Every structure is written in structure tokens, then in C-alpha cells.
Amino acid sequence: MDAFYELLYRPGLDLKLVGIVIGAWLILSHGYALMNFEKLKPVLEKFPRNYNVGVPLLVIAFIWTFMVWSSMDLGEFWKMEKAVQVILVVGCFAMAFYVKDFISVRAVGFLMILAAAPMLISAFQQPPITRLLLVFIAYVMIVKGMFWVGKPYLMRDQIAWVVADKKRWQIACGAGLAYGIVMLICALLFWGKAVAAPIT
Q1: Which of 36, 74, 85, 109 could cross-link 78 (Cys pair, CB 3.0–4.6 Å)?
Q2: CA-to-CA distance for 33 and 28, rounded, in angstroms?
Q3: In which element (H, E) is residue 47 found?
Q4: Is residue 97 part of a domain?
Q5: Long-range Cβ contacts of 158-164 (<8 Å, 24+ apart)
């Protein structure tokens, strides 16, 4: 668990590597979506209430949270470590069995919030101004993740809106693809190894 925490949450996480990974993910995911509207439309429409997909995603999110909580420096709250670990395990099973409605949406929301933290850590106080490309998408993920956890029907409505018109789909996919290309170019050309933040 400590190795996982050190990999994603240590200061000085490589901005270049994170930029390449996120940029490539945006390009591949939006490029694939752009070319497969008819194939993905029914899949996405069913996703918000897809319990069979939601449970594994929820388990991944809770394992990730458990590992972070168990490895981070809790300071004066160290006495709460075991209690919160129990709460996380019980909470995971409780959500899987008693909060079945829109569980896949909530799981994705949790994962987006968790994934945003390493992105922000890698960009923290780094010199290239283009790092804000990564910061922007991280905060978008956090805000959307919080809304999807609290109001999961919003994802359903957003999916319904974007798949209702193929032009909307193409614009949305094209925007994500373009953003990924710009980020990947910046990561390859301008983002170097992480520079240690100055001590203040």
C-alpha cells in the first residue's frame, strides 16, 4: 500500500509522465468515441443504471481510498486509522447492497475525484504555464465527480443530451480529442522532470 501511495502522491511526481498519460488517454478515448457513435450510444445510455459494471468500479474506488488512508501521514488523527478503515470496508458493502440506484455513476464520480489529486500534485508549482492544461482538467474532474456522486441523475441527463444529436457527439468528442493533442504536445515539448517546490 505504501508503494502505491508513494507512486501517486509523493511530492515531485513527474509532470511530463502524467501529462503524456492523460493526453494519450484523452486522444484514445475521444478518438474511439468519435468513430463509434452508433456502437457506444446504447452502452452509454444503459451505463448510469448498470449495476454489474458499477459494483467493480465501486470496489476499485474504495480499495484506492483504503490504500490512501492507510498510507498517508494522519498526524494527530492517527488514532482514527483503524476505525476509518472499518468504516470504509463496511461502507463499500453497504453501498453495493443498499444504494444500487445509479451506483455506476457514483463509482465513476469517486474515481474521478481520486484521480485528480495526483494530477494536481504533479503540476504543483511547476514552471511551464501550460501545466494549467492539466490543472484545469483535474478541477473539472473534481467538480463533475462531486456532482455525479451527489446528484447521479445528472450524468444520465448529460449522456441523453449528448447522444441525442450526432453533431453534439462529434463536437464533444472533437473537443476532447483536440484538448488531448494539445496536452500531449505540451508534455512532450515543454514539460520536463518535476522541479522541487521552493521552501517558504
Answers
A1: 74
A2: 8
A3: none
A4: yes
A5: 159/44, 159/45, 159/47, 159/48, 160/45, 163/37, 163/41, 163/44, 163/45
Ramachandran region, residue 101 (left: φ > 0; alpha: ψ -120 to 50; beta: rest): beta
Q: Give domain status of residue 194, yes or no.
A: no
Task: Tell me what the mean pLDDT of segment 27-45 comes to.
Answer: 96
Q: What domain count does the chain have?
A: 1
Domain that holds residue 20: 2-189
Question: Tens of pLDDT along 66-106?
Answer: 999 888 888 887 888 899 999 999 999 999 998 888 999 99
In a domain, 72, yes or no: yes
Predicted local confidence at residue 193, as pLDDT: 60
List all residues 6 or more positions away from 199 whose beta carbon is below 8 Å from its beta carbon. none
> 113 to each of 107, 141, 197, how far by Cα in Å?
10, 6, 24
Distance CA 192, CA 74 (A): 31
Question: Looking at the domain assignment, is residue 195 inside a domain?
Answer: no
Q: With contact defined as beta carbons under 8 Å apart, do 158 and 102 qualify?
A: no
Judged on CB neighbours under 10 Å (0-12, 13-18, 19+), 112 is buried
Query: What is the pTM for the complete model shown?
Result: 0.88
Round to whole Å and give the CA distance between 1 and 65.
11
pLDDT at 13: 85
